[in-house]
Design a protein that fits this description.
Blueprint: E1 2-7, H1 12-24, E2 29-34, H2 37-45, E3 50-53, H3 55-62, E4 67-71, H4 79-82, H5 86-94, E5 98-102, H6 119-138
Parallel strand pairs: 1-2, 1-4, 2-3, 4-5
Helix pairs in contact: 1-2, 1-6, 3-5
């Protein structure tokens, strides 16, 4: 299973996601794409298998990912203080992957209906959703 984690700024959310996914799922490959070199470095230090930085790596890797995880801003152009380009948001939005979006209420994007919770709780919920997805594709199909 190929999991793409995208993050910006200092990459702390992405790094926490990489650590949590690696700890819970042993047979996954994590590609970490940072919108800047600091974010990429943080995710690689956290244990990502592969890392790259910038727009083109998002465009290329979104096509082959099974799951894409990141803050909700990765599907909103000009989000993350301008670090997400139109092309990046479009590539993530159109990807055939399951998207697990972390509802971060920052960068002029407020998500109605979501109570403020800490990052740890958000990551735990993302892991539950990833586990449910992995479990659903591992089940044999009945005829």
């Amino acid at each position: 299973m190929n999991i793409l984690i995208i993050d910006g700024h200092g990459g702390q959310l992405g790094a926490q996601l990489v650590k949590a996914v690696k700890a819970k799922f042993k047979n996954v490959s994590i590609t970490a794409i940072g919108t800047n070199a600091i974010a990429t470095s943080a995710m690689l230090k956290a244990g990502a298998d592969i890392g790259a930085t910038g727009e083109n790596p998002v465009l290329v890797n979104a096509k082959s990912a099974d799951v894409i995880i990141g803050p909700i801003g990765i599907v909103i152009a000009d989000s993350l203080y301008g670090e997400i380009s139109d092309k990046m948001a479009n590539a993530v939005s159109k990807a055939q992957a399951l998207r697990i979006l972390i509802p971060i209420n920052r960068c002029d994007n407020l998500i109605a209906g979501i109570r403020d919770v800490n990052t740890k709780e958000l990551i735990e919920d993302a892991l539950v959703k990833l586990e449910e997805y992995i479990g659903s594709i591992d089940k044999p199909k009945s005829d």
